[in-house]
Amino acid sequence: SGSAFASAAVWQYESLKSRVHTYLEEARADWLDRMRPQKRGDFRKQVNSWWNSLTEGQRTVTGIIAANVFVFCLWRVPGMRRVMFTYFTSDPSSKALCSPMLLSTFSHFSLFHMAANMYVLWSFSSSIVSLLGCEQFMAVYLSAGVISTFVSYVAKMATGRFEPSLGASGAIMTVLAAVCTKMPEAKLAIIFLPMFTFTAGSALKAIIAFDTAGLALGWRLFDHAAHLGGALFGMWYVTYGHELIWKNREPLVKAWHEMRTKNTGKGGG
Q1: Which residues are annotated as catalytic?
Q2: Residue 168 phi, psi (nearest 5)
Q3: What pLDDT does 239 receive?
Q4: Which CATH class is domain 2-8+57-256?
Q5: Sequence spans of domains, the chain
Q6: Can you give the pLDDT at residue 269?
Q7: pTM of the predicted model, to two decimals?
Q8: Count of CB atoms situated within 10 Å of the CB of 209
Q9: What DSSP string describes the chain?
Q10: Torsion (CA) 218, 156, 138, 63 in degrees, nearest 10
């Protein structure tokens, strides 16, 4: 988590630094496009047009969705099954403990499971990135995967049920809880029942109650501990974590800036 937030702070610094250069390059490219004859049916232009039509949040989660699809395809390779079970499922009784805490966040064996998780992530992507920015969001998402898996480990050790888990649900619960905490009066609806609407605050309370009951009663339909850990982390981060972590990144960014400036000076500008 520390590495994720440090990398996000440096990423934001580099992104802001290159924004002017990117703007000038795009202006030059637009000028060249007007000068050149336009090609009909240019696939590259169609892709660029689609990409530019997406919100910043949707563009940010596209990489996450692509990673999940890639890992899902790896599960279909028979020779990869042993590796996938070892590193892409989280289980406190496994020999590999640390790396699966993150890698299992991008792992789905069921197509329906992956599709449902990615749909929720896509639906909330614009809201969460508008709240946190793409760099901070990525740090929170990766941290949420690790923290929700850790809570799952603790629950499994406490109950003695050593079952492998996988999926992005814990991290996505962090996203959902963060948005619902910041915008509790927002109206939500279920995809198959659009006529029934409810507030985000009510949805969050219902989800926490459901996962708390599932954890207490030992239900095995979902990894309720991971869901609950992810939701509580999302609520905590938007309430306290943003102030305690992200707003105190200045010393790191300053050190990175000084290092970049020193290296640039040594290289003759």
Answers
A1: 169, 227
A2: -90, 10
A3: 95
A4: mainly alpha
A5: 2-8+57-256
A6: 46
A7: 0.87
A8: 10
A9: -HHHHHHHHHHHHHHHHHHHHHHHHHHHHHHHHHHSPPPTT-HHHHHHHHHHHS-HHHHHHHHHHHHHHHHHHHHT-GGGHHHHHHHSSB-TTSS--SHHHHHGGG--SSHHHHHHHHHHHHHHHHHHHHHH-HHHHHHHHHHHHHHHHHHHHHHHHHHT----B-SSHHHHHHHHHHHHHH-TT-EEEETTEEEEEEEHHHHHHHHHHHHHHHHHHT--SS-HHHHHHHHHHHHHIIIIIHHHTGGG-HHHHHHHHHHHHHHHHHTT-
A10: -80
Ranges of residues in the chain with a pLDDT under 70 are 20-41, 191-195, 264-269
pLDDT of 24-70, one tens digit each?
Answer: 666 665 555 555 555 555 777 787 787 888 889 999 999 999 999 99
The set of residues, in sequence order, having a beta carbon less than 8 Å from that of 118 and lying 6+ positions away, is 65, 68, 168
Predicted confidence at residue 53, as pLDDT, reads 86
Per-residue pLDDT, 21: 67
